[in-house]
Design a protein that fits this description.
Layout lengths: L8 H5 L15 E5 L5 E6 H9 L3 E4 L6 E2 L1 H10 L8 E3 L4 E3 L3 E4 L14 H8 L15 E5 L14 E5 H7 L4 H4 L25 H5 L7
Parallel strand pairs: 1-7
Antiparallel strand pairs: 1-2, 3-4, 3-7, 5-6, 8-9
This protein binds zinc ion (ZN).
The site of zinc ion (ZN) has 8 residues, from strand 9 and helix 5.
């Protein structure tokens, strides 16, 4: 079994976990795994609880991976002691513990969204590293290079655009990497990042998502 998330942007996403003071608890974030236990999204707790209530998802216990449907989770919530009141959502007669991770019962509603091709996202994917000389540069020293030159029919795609420093760019000219004898440090591909959620994160809960996440880079 593998739990896969890609891209260092995910580290930033951990910051989404739970809420900042002043935000309501229901705005907490929940990691969503698909039926194959691959992390596919981050959902607000309200959405996660709805999926749980409707029987579309189960809660994954962050420690032992035990699965809970809504009724079992409600029961488990009643028995949960020693946790901050912020960990719960309250109804007039009961309390429900906020899940940290849920797993979908079917492939409904969530899928890994495509990352938009943009200058900014190419810089993020290539991490300000020239893909030819493998050195790190500041933004202003980098250009976006067409691997197969535009003049030769090269397209604007994730697979054909890479960061190149000005020196490498000049050296390569209108040639392919093979012709210029300038191999790419890695094959450019479209990244699969999860949506960025910009909420601050209390450090205490970092671990619970990390178990489900493997960073590729
Ligand atoms: Zn370079």
């Amino acid at each position: 079994m593998r739990w896969v998330l890609e891209g260092d942007i995910l580290l930033k996403m951990f910051r989404c976990f739970f809420w900042e003071s002043g935000r309501t608890m229901i705005n907490a974030c929940v990691l969503v795994l698909n039926r194959s236990w691959v992390a596919v999204n981050v959902a607000p707790a309200k959405r996660a609880l709805t999926l749980l209530f409707q029987g579309h998802a189960r809660v994954v216990h962050p420690q032992d991976y035990a699965l809970y449907d809504f009724d079992a989770w409600l029961e488990f919530s009643r028995r949960s002691t020693g946790l901050s009141f912020r960990r719960f959502v309250y109804t007039p007669s009961d309390r429900i513990r906020l899940p940290e991770v849920i797993v979908l019962n079917a492939f409904n509603g969530f899928h890994i969204p495509a990352v938009r091709l943009s200058r900014r996202n190419i810089f993020t994917r290539d991490r300000n590293i020239c893909q030819y000389c493998t050195r790190h540069f500041s933004r202003s020293e980098l250009t976006i290079d067409h691997v197969i030159p535009k003049s030769r029919g090269g397209k604007d795609t994730w697979e054909n655009l890479v960061l190149a420093c000005t020196t490498c760019n000049l050296k390569k000219r209108d040639r392919t990497p093979e012709e210029a004898k300038m191999p790419l440090m890695r094959k450019p591909v479209a990244p699969r990042w999860l949506p960025r959620v910009a909420l601050p994160l209390p450090k205490e809960d970092l671990h619970s998502w990390k178990r489900f996440v493997e960073l590729r880079y």
